[in-house]
Amino acid sequence: MWVNGCKWMFLIIGTMIGAGYASGRELWQFFGPESGLAIGLFAVLFSVCCAVIMTISYNQQSTHYIPILHALMGKKVAKLYDGMIFLYLFTTTVVMLAGGGATLEVIHIPYWGGVFILMMMVVLLFLRGSEGMTTMNAIIIPILIFCLLGVLFVFQSLLGFPITIDFTQQGNWPSALTFTALNILPLVAVLGAVGHRIRHQGEIWVASIGSGLILGAISFLYNESLIQVAGDLVVYEIPLFAIMKHYPYYMVLVMSGLLWLAIYTTAAAGIFGLSSRMGAVLNWPSWLLALTLLGFMVPLTTFGFSTLIAVLYPLYGILNLYVFAAILLYPIFHHRLVQRS
Predict the structure, then answer these.
(1) Calpha distance 259→254 (Å, rounded)
(2) Which of 125, 276, 298 is nearest to 186 (CA)?
(3) Looking at CB atoms within 10 Å, which of 252, 281, 303, 327 has the fewest?
(4) In this structure, is residue 338 part of a structural domain?
(5) What residues form the membrane-spanning segments (predicted)?
(6) pLDDT tens per residue, range 184-207
(7) What predicted TM-score, i.e. pTM, was given to this entire model?
(8) Which residues, in sequence order, are CB contacts of 312 under 8 Å at separation 6+?
(9) Please, are residues 262 and 17 in contact by the beta-carbon 8 Å criterion?
(10) Are 272 and 130 in contact (CB under 8 A)?
């Protein structure tokens, strides 16, 4: 139970910790000062959402996300969200491919070489099917967490841990709702693909509570560190590097590698959700589905996606809030949530 629970926990964290989160950009956009309560509320809401999604997935013994959508909102509305999740995963994975190519240019690997490397690493991951995805997260995510926490703890120790929480100044708590909702669609897509591999209810509680606690702790420490360098964040496109501005250059390279790994895990999670959905229609091996999807994506990395993202992401935000509300209300209207149907 504990081993499998940790495996799902790392899958959840790997889906959540993308390049935006690891760089600090998402955290600073949603939180910042007066956010201690907001981050605590996010950790609770995130755990609840994971528990509900995983329980539905377990009850349905699902292999993709459609049964989750049917349970949450009915078959008619689920058709709309099926298309939106597919489009969301597709566009975000294209952006990750472009980001992976651009990141490796720092070490003088040509852009297309970086895109090809990321593409091949994702395809190789799926030679073992879904097992490859969970194994990768079990190896990479602890490394990401260790490196990120190491940098943040050293930074805080140099400052003497100036962390204080004034509970009379916690006006940013609504950000917990929007930040949690932002990450709902990829969670539904990824966790819906592993329901048939969950063997015990205990795995769900280990994964959901563990991921909420770990992400809550990292988010709080990261946010508090960013507050200390708030004046420098207008200069740095990647907030993490504002924290590391006095670190040795080799540490900057190490953390650049960490950001690339975060891009890799996000791209892999996107392909995992897409290939599991397509696998319900096409009886192809996982690696062939992954290769086909990536083949369609690679040419699109040449386009400018700023306009596309400017239009789609606000729409995703609204749609995510609807799914978020449906997940929170599900246990109220379905009292047998803890029983497998």
Answers:
(1) 9
(2) 276
(3) 281
(4) no
(5) 7-24, 36-59, 80-103, 109-127, 139-161, 173-192, 204-222, 249-274, 286-309, 315-333
(6) 888 999 999 899 999 988 999 999
(7) 0.87
(8) 87, 88, 91
(9) yes
(10) yes
